[in-house]
Amino acid sequence: MSNLQKEDFSKWYLQTIQKADLMDYSPVRGCIIFKPDGYELWEHIQEDFNKFLRSEDIRNVYFPMLIPKHFLEKEEEHVEGFAPELPWLTRVGDEELEEPYALRPTSETLIGDAFSNWINSYRDLPLEINQWANVFRWEKKTMPFLRTSEFLWQEGHTAHETEENARARTMSALEAYADLIENTLAIPVYRGQKTPSERFAGAVDTYSVEAMMRDGKAVQAGTSHYLGNNFAQAFDIKFLNRNNEHEHVYTTSWGISTRLIGSLIMVHGDEKGLVMPPKVAPTQVILIPVGPWQKNPAILDKLKELQATLRAKGLRVRIDETDNSPGYKFNEWELKGAPLRIEFGPRDLENNQVVVKMRDLDDKETVALDDLEAYITEAMDVMQKRLYESAAARYKENEHYDIDTLDQLKEHIAKSKEEGEVPGFVLIGWDGTEETEAKIKEETGFTTRNIPFNPPVEKEVDIVSGKPAKHTVWIARAY
Amino acid sequence: MSNLQKEDFSKWYLQTIQKADLMDYSPVRGCIIFKPDGYELWEHIQEDFNKFLRSEDIRNVYFPMLIPKHFLEKEEEHVEGFAPELPWLTRVGDEELEEPYALRPTSETLIGDAFSNWINSYRDLPLEINQWANVFRWEKKTMPFLRTSEFLWQEGHTAHETEENARARTMSALEAYADLIENTLAIPVYRGQKTPSERFAGAVDTYSVEAMMRDGKAVQAGTSHYLGNNFAQAFDIKFLNRNNEHEHVYTTSWGISTRLIGSLIMVHGDEKGLVMPPKVAPTQVILIPVGPWQKNPAILDKLKELQATLRAKGLRVRIDETDNSPGYKFNEWELKGAPLRIEFGPRDLENNQVVVKMRDLDDKETVALDDLEAYITEAMDVMQKRLYESAAARYKENEHYDIDTLDQLKEHIAKSKEEGEVPGFVLIGWDGTEETEAKIKEETGFTTRNIPFNPPVEKEVDIVSGKPAKHTVWIARAY
Predict the structure, then answer these.
(1) Subunit composition (chains A, B) (predicted)?
(2) What confidence score (pLDDT) does residue A2 get?
């Protein structure tokens, strides 16, 4: 990590995303402007997840953004969970509305109501839909991409005949998230179950995939909820089952959001700026003319020809033909995180070759123009895997299994600080009580991330109470 | 047209879109639920228009949905135009906000403010961006897809060095709309300029493409605005020009919305239901097993094989393997407007053939399985053109050039009603005064649609005042 990354990770993050032109601040409290490169990252995430949805025949829909007040109040835990951060539409033109509308924080309520109209018999099940939409949660502390008052997300909503089917969908959605985040964003994730205190408001069980940022803090990267009959009861979603009896459906919901963009930056970025995984990079290949290229039009001509060839292959390729110096351009495109830089000057023209520099490697390579297409495909593929492996290795370094008491945890945190290391993820034993969670949070700022499906070791004793552990849990500081 | 289409076109429309499962009503005033087939139409429109944007290097962004009150007030005409239908966010949780936020009706103001930060010199120009977003206009009368309190749209915003460049973009965006609507949606459009009274609030000039529905009424299908320096002055968007002087930029904005979905239905639909142009149909090919197919598994197997082959070619293909009768299924898929129906039974299996029925033709054809792929590609292509030609022919029948006075117009309307015909589009002479527009509207409900770039004839005399006409204008009743 660079000095600034080590000394003040938040500052590094905020500087980098602005300098790299991913976003800008806006005059709206806690809301950002997604600039073209920032928004394009979201578009690639959408394309990728839409493939999963299509493969499962889960179709996209669009529901109204406004939720009547009495709808939100139907599921008690749900409204309690969201109430403090709900923005309210109370007036149109000069007229006060009789009943205010909330700007949606999530859509279980409106969709539950629709499901109750659309579902009659087991033949209508499963009913599975997805929505790409903007949502609002007016949180006190905001952070670009990671926590904003308005954000973009996808919310899947499904209804099933049986608990078993609903639980299977809950898990397959979680696995689809893990797949997208690991393979497309090159970010390893921790799969597991949330503790009851961290559950979605209204859920029976919440599962998450969690990622570790370079500063050792966690980001909850995606969640999938088994909602049992809770919303089915609140919205009277019944079906005639195979025994000709009326029964409540079992529902699920699951979401990922534009906070994935923040995670991407915080996992891969380095002292020079962003490092974009090739699969989602807005500019995968940047072509930079070098030497006295303005005097020799054949150089730019050749680059344009190359750009056209590569674009025809589906690659995202740009040429930087500004008047800036090559050195300036190299820095600029390293800041933006373009995976592959191609330098091309008079000598390269003569020798029918280019010079290639990968964003995450130090050395340059000379490649014959005839071999370039194959080289690029291979190099991007290898870089995508390298970024994943590099993050996975960092995860391993920052995981701690040998902390058994709160004092040890505090020592670990103090020592990390002293040595300029990150405290990372700590695996603890937990007796299942909220008291333990509260105590850890109060004394260290760490929170439970999830109960991993496959913990690297099983912890025997609760870190606070010393009682026998019911679960082995990841804890960390979190965004 | 069917009887219901003729007798009560609105009723036909509302019944058809619900029965065909494109939408449902919602508990939110004037807002609809876009069901999968309805939303997918929008997705195909998005894919298509994104191609235009990419070809012009106009990139997608996302701005906050909320607009601070004082921002909206900076452009006087703009706020006046939108004020009565603006929904206001005034409260978060239990706290009243110091300054309310409007739910965006359009984003010139927030984007203008950002442009003033992003633009410094002519080197930053043109600056061209696009946003796909939800917008709000709380209109008194609503109609599914065509006019809803919340709708989905695309808004392009550009800033230029010169009036000439800005006007060129205004026109090229309009032409891109015409291209999409004519070629992808198979809906012919009338290109022209809006009269000042119908201009976008804050624009110097507004241009539109207008479409004619089966009932002869108009839908404004897309608009493109030349905004001159109006927003540049209101938001202080200045640049250092090539003479080293500070100057205001010239801006444009342009939009199409989910009302295109309504137009699609009202232009192509017939007594049996929707008729989907092949390019955007959610189901392009519906495969229906016929005869005693449940007893002969080879039939369904063959259809599944066929589905896989056609899907691999990029076609959207479904099999209807429900227990309903073939006749029921035929009606169902005609209602949904699937362009191509394939029937397949025991005899077809034996003869290695299928029976094909196009949605808009009466006859069936028998096609050898070996020729089917090529047949489908060709048939869809021909149907796409046929729908366009058929709409264009209907337009011609319902255009009227020979009406010179208000009395003649009233007679024409009365006669149309008597004969069960639609009054359609009427080309009139206009002296350029608002008085004429107001009088026409008051007496007939017709409004000016646009001043066509290439009128079929030039009208010499104003229809109301009898004074020399300054313009030849299309008028019609409009949604």
Answers:
(1) Homodimer.
(2) 52
Q: Find the CATH number of the domain harbouring B239.
A: 3.30.930.10
Sequence-distant (≥ 6) Cβ neighbours of residue A227 within 8 angstroms: A108, A166, A202, A203, A204, A250, A251, A252, A253
- Of B379, B409, B434, which residue constitutes the final position of a domain? B379
Mutation site, B21, B23, B34, B39, interface A, largest A CB count within 10 A:
B39
Q: Residue A79 pLDDT more than 70? A: yes
Whether A61 and B33 lie within 8 Å, measured CB to CB: yes
- Helix (H), strand (E) at residue B473: strand B471-476
Determine phi and psi for A299, rounding to 5 degrees: -65, -50
CB A186 within 8 A of CB A339: no
Residue with tokens 């995180």: A337
Could you tell me if A249 and A370 lie in one domain?
no
d(CA B472, CA B459): 5
The residues in B 59-78 lying below 8 A from A, measured between CB atoms, are 59-68, 71
Per-residue pLDDT reduced to its tens digit, B408-432: 999 999 999 999 999 999 999 999 9
A58 assigned to some structural domain = yes
Total count of domains within chain B: 3
Q: Which amino acid is at B22?
A: L
Kindly state whether residues A230 and A336 are assigned to the same domain: no
ipTM of the complex: 0.97
pLDDT at B2: 52
In a domain? residue B77: yes
Query: What is the chain A residue with the closest CA to B83?
Result: A93
Domain enclosing residue B87, as ranges:
3-268
Of A268, A303, A327, which residue is a domain's last?
Answer: A268
| Partner residue opposite A31 with nearest CB, options B66, B92, B129 | B66
A86, A93, A152 member nearest B92 (Cβ): A86
> For A390-455, what is the HEC assignment?
HHHHHHHHCEECCCCCHHHHHHHHHHHHHCCCCCCEEEEEECCCHHHHHHHHHHHCCEEEEEECCC
Single-letter amino acid code for the residue at B6: K
| CA distances in angstroms from A288 to A277, A315, A379, listed in the order given | 20, 16, 18
Residue A171 lies in a domain: yes
Q: Give the length of chain B.
A: 479
Q: Give the model confidence (pLDDT) of A13-25 as tens digits.
A: 999 999 999 999 9
Assess contact for B286 and B339: CB atoms under 8 A.
no
CB B64 within 8 Å of CB A28: yes
For the stretch B39-76, pLDDT in tens is: 999 999 999 999 999 999 999 999 999 999 999 888 88
**Domain-located, residue B206:** yes
Q: Answer yes or no: is pLDDT of A297 > 60.
A: yes
